[in-house]
Structures are given as C-alpha cells and as structure tokens.
Amino acid sequence: MTTDLFHQNQKKKYKKAIIVGASSGMGKELCRILVGRDWAVGITGRRENLLKELQEENPEQIVYRAFDIRDMSKTTKGLRELISELGGLDLLVLSSGAGFLNEELDSEPEFRTIDTNVTGFTDIMTFAYLYFEKHPPGHLVGITSIAALRGNAVAPAYNASKAYQSNYLEGLRQKSRKAGHRISVTDIRPGFVDTDMAKGDKMFWVASPQKAASLIYKAIRRKKRVAYVSRRWRIFAFILKLLPRWIYEKI
Ligand SMILES: NC(=O)c1ccc[n+]([C@@H]2O[C@H](COP(=O)([O-])OP(=O)(O)OC[C@H]3O[C@@H](n4cnc5c(N)ncnc54)[C@H](OP(=O)(O)O)[C@@H]3O)[C@@H](O)[C@H]2O)c1
C-alpha cells in the first residue's frame, strides 16, 4: 500500500516508529515528542476516536490503526499496514498494558491482564523482533514497570506479567547480541505516573506523563538497556531487590 505519508517519508527521510498503546498516557506523550523530533509515527490502541484526535495534531507525520492487542490476527495485520504506510520501521515501543487491583482474586481481571501483558506482549515483540532481524537495524522498547521486581498481594497478575515482560526483553537482548542481529532492546521501568493506569492510595514520587515520556525518549536516544522513570526509582529498585522475603511479606 502506498500512501501520501509513505511518499512524504521517502522524500523527507523521517525516522519511523510505531507506538502500540498511544491513545493516552505515556504512549501519547511520547508520540508528541517523536513527532517534534522528525519521526513519522504509527500509533495504536482500541479507542479509535482518541487515535484520530492525536493524528489530527499532525496528519503529515502520524498514521493510526485501532485494534485490541489480545486479538493476534488483528495485531499482525495492523502492524503490517502501519509499517507499509510508514515506508519501514526503525523503532517499536510497546506501551499498551492492563492492570487491576484484585484483592478477591476474581479470574476475569487476572486473565485479562495475562492476555494483554503476556500473550499480546509476546505476539508484538516476536513480530517486531523478526521484522528487525530481516530489516536491521531496529530498536525494541517495552514499557514494563518497577512492579516487575517483586510480587504484589493486591495485583498479583500485574506484577507477575511485568516480571515476564522484563525477563522476555532481556532474553531478546541476549539473542540479538549472540546472533549479531543489530537489534537494540530497552526495558523502561516507570514508578508511578499520573495516568489511568496508576492505581492505589499509597502513591508517591508521581511523575506527569509528559515528564515520563521525555525521560523515555532520552533512554531511547541513548539506547539504554534498562531505564527507571524517573531516575530516583533506581534507588527504590535497589532497596526493593535487597529486601529479604520475610520482611517483604509483612509490608
Ligand atoms: N501509570 C503508571 O503508574 C505506570 C507505572 C508503571 C508502568 N506502567 C505501564 O505503562 C504502560 C502505559 O500505561 P499508562 O500509564 O500510559 O496508562 P494509560 O494512559 O492507561 O495507557 C495505556 C495504553 O494501553 C492501551 N491498551 C490497554 N489495553 C489494550 C488492549 N487490550 N489493546 C490495545 N491497547 C490497549 C490503551 O489504549 P486503549 O484503551 O485505547 O486500547 C492505552 O493507550 C502500561 O504498560 C503500564 O503497565 C504504568
């Protein structure tokens, strides 16, 4: 498929990115930053009206597809179409995520989290890795969480799914290094960010989505392996990892 955007990209040589989960929050703000830095960006999410609104801010540099990442057939089709419209791909950022406070351990929120953060995530990361393997170089970025580091009594599926994501990204990074695939892999671990995803009444060091996105952009530019957003969460992570299990279980 050749479109106006494709021809413009060829002419102006924009760098090309896809942000999965850019209808709101950090993904949306990152899209605005990339557009300001001469990237053409394909954005996705389920809420088509919000994607359209963002696209209208800069129709020359933004294209969108609405799909649910839990539906694997639609995801692959949507990503393929975006790559074709952009005229290639240099960077894929996966920001889509689901998480619920679920003290009752209801099965619906637990499995919805797994379908989105584990199955959907794996589907997109494998697709993008294999694309970049054929069309190097490439950069894969996952927005995981500080939650990846330990379990959580009120959101067990969320923390477990984020641990899966971090571990998966590390696996892909090792694969790329060993095989010489020229694919960079970045694991972004935010603390609390003021979006709909931020849940609970004990939040602290809460960053705005704009601030978080600018730190994510910096980490992307530097091709960091792991970046905490904001930086002070690195100290928190250090302490969290050191805490003995018998203390962690009580807090
Ligand atoms: N906010 C925090 O405190 C925090 C902390 C650590 C990590 N994170 C992680 O940061 C990432 C971005 O979240 P955010 O804070 O920016 O929250 P957000 O504003 O709620 O953004 C979440 C994005 O995920 C998309 N999404 C959710 N389920 C989807 C599905 N099934 N299919 C396709 N897209 C889906 C949403 O789009 P649609 O609803 O339009 O589909 C939206 O664009 C998430 O992975 C989250 O786990 C957030």
Give short descriptive properties of this protein.
single chain; alpha/beta; Rossmann fold; 7-stranded parallel β-sheet; 9 helices; binds NADP nicotinamide-adenine-dinucleotide phosphate
Structure notes:
The protein is of the alpha/beta class. It has one domain: Rossmann fold (3-Layer(aba) Sandwich). Helix content is 50%, strand content 16%. The chain contains nine helices and seven strands. Strands 3-2-1-4-5-6-7 form a seven-stranded parallel sheet, sandwiched between helices. Strand 5, helix 6 and strand 6 form a beta-alpha-beta unit. Helix 2 crosses helix 7 and helix 5 runs parallel beside helix 6. The termini are far apart. The model has no long low-confidence stretch (mean pLDDT 95). The site of NADP nicotinamide-adenine-dinucleotide phosphate has 28 residues, from helix 2.
Q: Work out the count of structural domains.
A: 1
E-strand count: 7
Helix content: 40-55%
Report the mean per-residue pLDDT as an integer. Answer: 95
The ligands found in this model are: NADP nicotinamide-adenine-dinucleotide phosphate
CATH T-level topology:
Rossmann fold
Low-confidence stretches: none
Name of the level-1 CATH class? Alpha Beta
List the helices and strands and how they pair.
Blueprint: H1 4-12, E1 15-20, H2 25-36, E2 39-45, H3 48-57, E3 62-66, H4 72-86, E4 91-94, H5 107-134, E5 138-143, H6 156-179, E6 183-190, H7 209-221, E7 226-229, H8 233-242, H9 245-248
Parallel strand pairs: 1-2, 1-4, 2-3, 4-5, 5-6, 6-7
Helix pairs in contact: 2-7, 5-6
The structure holds NADP nicotinamide-adenine-dinucleotide phosphate.
